[in-house]
Amino acid sequence: MDADQLIDALQSPSAYPHATGDFELFQTHISWVILTGEYAYKIKKPMDFGFLDFSTLAKRKHFCEEEIRLNSRFAPEIYLDVVAIMLDGQGQPRIVAQANDRDAIEYAVRMRQFDATQTLDNLAGAGVLSDADIESIGISLAEFHQRLRDHPGPASKLQPVPGSPASVWAPVKENFDQIRPLLVRSGELSKLDQLEKWAEGEYQRLESSLQQRLDDGYVRECHGDLHLGNMVKLPDQGGKIVFFDSIEFNENFRCIDVAKETAFTLMDLESRGMAGCANRLLNTYLDYGGDFGGLPLIGFYKAYYAMVRAKINLLQVASMTPEEIASHENYAEFCRYLELAISYTGHKKPFYAITCGVSGSGKSTAALSIAAETGAIVLRSDVERKRLFGLSPRQPSDRKIYTQEVSEQTFSRLANLSQIVLQAGLPCIVDA
User: Fold this and answer.
1) pLDDT tens digits, 339-372
2) Helices 275-289 and 131-147 sit at what angle, rounded to 10 degrees?
3) Of these four, 56, 165, 271, 341, which has the most CB atoms within 10 Å of its CB?
């Protein structure tokens, strides 16, 4: 039974050990997803792209298991288990919970089906993402990255080591090398040269910081593909937002600096014209995670991801001549992402502001509003005071953290963080 026959046969109620509804089939270049009503089944296509190898049944089983392991970290309510597909006495495929490997003809990831209209890219397109939703993403991302502190993943097995300067620069350089032969217009070629020169300079400037981040343990087994389309709101769980579809097929793509993962989400928001939301997410992430040391890398990584998006639009039509590509609709998207990447290279004019006023006078509201318009980082004394005692922003505190001595420690920390923010070229507002 070939792959097409298998997928056709699995769109029948008799193939499942549970009741089914209407069947729907979705596919990407690497998998099929069959929706059955309550459950969805994801089957990997037998192919080898070099960076991805699903060429044997054993490998497909392994990566199904990896998909469950990785996504159970943040979406256990969606990712359930790996099931086998075997043939019955009539030679028809059946989904079974367990089967001997010798009987299985394929494997699938079983997931609880969710409403695809509730993915955050769809909600953003409809203009219904709230500030609370954005803050929820920031909190979840910060808490997820912190849980990974003692679980750095299998980076030591890989060469070059993920997160090392060499591994960071290689895909940046690859973007330019793969894009350039597909261009013919002098304007875009000139912009590409300009951007590559900037990227080379930034890499040289940040190289020691990249190594220090690796040494300090900020390279972890992350999600790897955390854009809005891989986040979903679950109405039956009170509107909880969960991440899904972590990259399972390549360790290099997910074993990255947590700042790089954060930058991808920020770039995705900004590419949708949601810069204010990106700023709110970043400030929330910093409040709950405290990784201010990653700020100097954010612009470099955002430009990288914008160029990945730009490149993908060209590679989709790479079989055409450069002249044909230049007149294709994908070229407009390429240019849009190229301009977004260039926007991250502009000369920064940071400012420094400090709020004043009695408690309850609206300092925090004003600070966040100004930050959303200017891209500023907001340093909140209440948050940093709690952090000194290992408390999160939401945890209650007692009087002992409001002594004169603790206040002096808090303001000293705010001063140090202000330097980090300003040296990263970002505006800074101290809300105290």
Assistant:
1) 999 999 987 789 999 998 888 888 999 999 999 9
2) 40
3) 341
- Alpha-helical runs (H) found in 316-398: 322-326, 329-343, 363-374, 381-387
Report how far residue 39's alpha carbon sits from residue 62's, in angstroms, rounded to the nearest whole number.
Answer: 21
Cis peptide before 17 (omega within 30 of 0): no
Please name the residue that has the structure tokens 């390429």: 334
Taking residue 186's Cβ as centre, other Cβ atoms within 10 Å add up to 8
Alpha helices by DSSP H, listed for 246-326, are: 251-254, 258-271, 275-289, 295-315, 322-326
Cα–Cα distance, 69 to 193 (Å, whole number): 41
* DSSP per-residue codes, 90-158: TS-EEEES---TTTEEEEEEEEE---GGGBHHHHHHTT---HHHHHHHHHHHHHHHHHGGG---SGGGS
CB distance 429 to 371 below 8 Å: yes
Prediction pTM value: 0.94
CA angle, residues 272, 260, 217, in degrees to nearest 5? 155
CA–chain centroid gap for 338, Å, is 20
To the nearest 5 percent, what fractions of the chain are helix, strand and coil?
A: 55, 15, 30
Distance CA 197, CA 215 (A): 27
Phi-psi sector, 312: left (phi>0), alpha (psi -120 to 50), beta: alpha
Question: What is the structure's pLDDT at 155?
Answer: 46
- Going by DSSP bridges, is the β-strand pair 79-87/104-112 parallel, antiparallel, or unpaired? antiparallel
